Amino acid sequence: MKYRLFTSLTVLLLAGIGVSSIPPQPPAPSPKPNLVFILADDLGWGDLSCYGATDLKTPHIDSLMRAGLRFTSFYANSPVCSPSRASLLSGRWPERMGVPGVIRDDSTDSWGYLAPGPLLPDYLQKAGYHTALVGKWHLGLESPNTPNERGFLEFDGFLGDMMDDYYTKLRNKHNFMRHNRQVVNPPGHATDVFTDGAIRYVTSRKGRAKPFFLYLAYNAPHNPLQPPADWLERVQQREPGIDPTRAKLVALIEHMDANVGRLLSTLKANGQLKNTLIVFTSDNGGWGPGKANNGPVRAFKGTMYEGGIRIPAGVAWTGHIQPGRTSDERLQLIDWLPTFLELTGQKATAPLDGKSMLPLLTDNEPASSALEPIHLRPLFFIRREGTDTYKGLTTQAVRLGDWKLLQPNPFSPYELYNLKDDPRETTDLAGREKTKAAQLTRLLMDHIRQSGSVPWQKRN
What we know:
It is a single chain. By secondary structure, this protein is α/β, with parallel strands linked by helices. Helix content is about 30%, strand content about 20%. The chain has helices at about 1-15, 60-65, 80-90, 120-125, 190-205, 230-240, 245-270, 305-310, 335-345, 360, 370-375, 435-450; strands at about 35-40, 70-75, 130-135, 155-160, 170, 175, 175-180, 180-185, 210-215, 275-280, 310-315, 325, 330, 380-385, 395-400, 405, 415-420. The strands form three sheets. Strands 1, 2, 3, 4, 7, 8, 9, 10, 11, 12 and 13 form an eleven-stranded mixed sheet that branches. A four-stranded antiparallel sheet has the order 14-15-16-17, covered by helices on one side. Strands 5-6 form a two-stranded antiparallel sheet. β5 and β6 form a beta hairpin. α5 (about 190-205) runs parallel beside α7 (about 245-270) and α6 (about 230-240) crosses α7. The longest helix has 26 residues, at about 245-270. The model is unreliable at about 1-20 (pLDDT under 50).
């Protein structure tokens, strides 16, 4: 009783001298999350068991998808590698970053040159992050477009496009493997080597106050289909009668999945997983000659049909993204940068074409007004190429709502599809829906005009 009386008198006395009017101190801000972005190379929409594949097993990637939000209508910005990676890291349409096509070590067959301007790791450094790229870069082979010059404090990976061999890791007899600016030649399968590098990196950040951004870009399952022998044997024993080419692809994907599991286990053991936002996705659709499974849609990598540009994607963040959700919202790789800027409280210092999807991630039922910019915008796709099919020209596509206009090659008429009624793109409506075709053609022409001022070749 005496304690209660003393406490009451104390409260009254403090109130009398105005202490009660002092506003309470705001809670300390939550620490910024670590960001881990895992990008597969040519992984088809249907080539994960959580997307319906029945002849492969991807338990670790599946668990990551279940732990957060899985997307069913996520798009690359291009049906090939470099343009999609340019959009991912810049938040801009790839041709506005000078990368309408694939950057190669052969200058006569290279169709892009990364333009100056801030990239995602530059912004994240300003937000207090340490930044690292482990794996495939594919946005430049020489200064000033190497990872360490474009925002990554740490680079442990491959500068080029594809490897001719997952063990020698050479491309056209050249070694493009680097640790920062040093040429290296680590032994082992590339998927294992890159995972080892990612594990070393996250472990080196253990216990540090500064958050980190790890961009882990695998070469798998890109051609050549070269899984470790024991992984291939395992698939062949489990799936009798499987097509030999398909077996190699399945084994390469399952081997990558096991390596994703290694990284997740390390993050958990380090105590980092609880405050780490993790994305898993692909750069474009699966490769047809490799027997990829792009789900119930048309065609494969390299085309503007859904099989070339629709990709698997998911994101997890413990305590912030409700697990077990799926979304059919139409999103693109271009949207990740503005999302991360909003998440980390950064303002863009250059124009952005992508839109933040943060309300969709962190709110189970976001207000429609928060998603309006995403719902109403057109999505654009591009590929410039030098084969006989392209002859140095581009193919492009635009999606607006349920409608999609595309050109299968530079010398064919535009085709129009209603993806709601015809998700397999079997019935070209360009001749019947002329008003809609004209509307989307005008959108695409305006986009081409606005993007045409950016050079995509190196200035001599």
